[in-house]
Amino acid sequence: MDTFTNRQRLQKINHHLLEMVKGNFSLRIERSDKKDELEALAAAINFLTEEIQESVLHHGYKNPDNIFALTDQMVFILNRSYRILQTNNSVKRFLQFKQRDILHNEFEQLLSADSLKNWRETVEKLEEQQEQEARLRLSFKTEKGLLLPADCKLIFFRGNGVLQDKILVSSSHILPSPKNYELVSLRNDEFSKKMIQPRALHKKHHLYSSDIESIRAAREFIMDHIQGPVPLIEIAHSVGINEYKLKRGFKELYGSTVFQFIKDQRLRKARVLVLYTNKSISAIAKLVGFKKGNHLSREFKKLYGHSPTQLRILNIDHYTNNFNTDTSN
Amino acid sequence: MKKYIENNFASFKMDRGILHIAYKENLCLSLKAAKEVVSQRLKIQHGRAYPIVCDMRGIKDVTVDAKEYLVTEGSVLISALAMITKTPLSLLYTEIYTLETPPITIRRFTDESRALEFLRPFVELNDF
């Protein structure tokens, strides 16, 4: 029995890897409650897929001349018993089910076990409160048993109208691939001229794998030294590349300059210290790597729209200490 | 005297200068969960850095944005971190976390008493 289950788990991993080979990074392997090596493998592959998906999207937005992001939607129309009355063609595309195989079935059968709870709670809330719309994140099961997570919108049509007493569920998906770029540029020449051509004129600077390794090492060096001064020349020397290559490559790989990255990291840390501790602003500044409190305040306001002191006032309730004392131990 | 609190995602116990954090069973650590855990931890610490022993065994899943948050915001005010891992799954998440090397001393353990032994030098004297 166990061998059979493991074979099924391995089959799902296999299906998922094949989808990745095809360039589909939207799917995930459904997770079980086990904590063994196979589960760790599935978790690692899911994590990697999520990272690749984010990275592909990042490059898609940054370099639309290479890869373009196109959105698509799955649409389900349900009756009041939550059975599927109609779908669009994207359902077949994303979940591989033929329409006739899912029509009149319960919508819940398409959802993962984790999503089912979320779906039922949302529907119940909508029914109780007589609200019309809700947003929720659902994971759909594909025909091969993989998962497709998606941000969804749920609309209850009440009152009179063509869709009276029907429920519409739509899910949004971003598709990054050269094929999509071609599709978009063919369909909309004007749009592609505006969005794609000016970028295409930029000269390309390709990074070699050794450069990528050095730039990743530079990021680690920065993270290790973020509390003190981190001059560019020191970072470059520590990883054995020149400053010019570090500056260009870092922006190419991470989408921000070295200085912006350092500043953002420090400000993110400062923000939680402002919110959840009583430390003075100057003490927080020193702790996260700013020389002075007023420097931190200035940069903080630029990024978050309010000073650290203003943020503390806005979130005064976060200071309530609800840490219980258990004297019985 | 021990202090204990728990939220939807983890339990927190301060004992002789070491903060014990244990993630709840079958936890899917999303960004929201990571934020709750970090804010609860910082409220307990009152602005001081502490050595922390973190039991990772309950974690079922971690999202990429949650990991990013834990590596950046989640690394403040930690003088040393001992992570308890006993299953291949918890070992994976520990490795993913340490891969980005937050600027703190981190060690992995399967045995809690050895983890506490490792953290003891980081405890400030007046916390005993």
TrEMBL record, chain A:
* Statement: the UniProt record of this protein carries the keyword Transcription regulation: yes
Q: Show where the HAMP domain sits.
A: 8-57
What domain of life is recorded for the organism?
A: Bacteria
GO BP:
signal transduction
Q: Which PROSITE patterns match?
A: HAMP (PS50885), HTH_ARAC_FAMILY_2 (PS01124)
Q: Which GO terms describe its cellular component?
A: membrane
List residues of the HTH araC/xylS-type domain: 216-314
Q: Name one Pfam family in it.
A: HTH_18
Q: What name does this protein carry?
A: AraC family transcriptional regulator
From TrEMBL, chain B:
Query: Which Gene3D superfamilies does this one have?
Result: yp_829618.1 domain like (3.40.1680.10), yp_829618.1 like domains (3.40.970.30)
> Where is each DUF7793 domain found?
12-122
- Lineage of the native species? Bacteria, Pseudomonadati, Bacteroidota, Flavobacteriia, Flavobacteriales
Protein name from the UniProt record: DUF7793 domain-containing protein
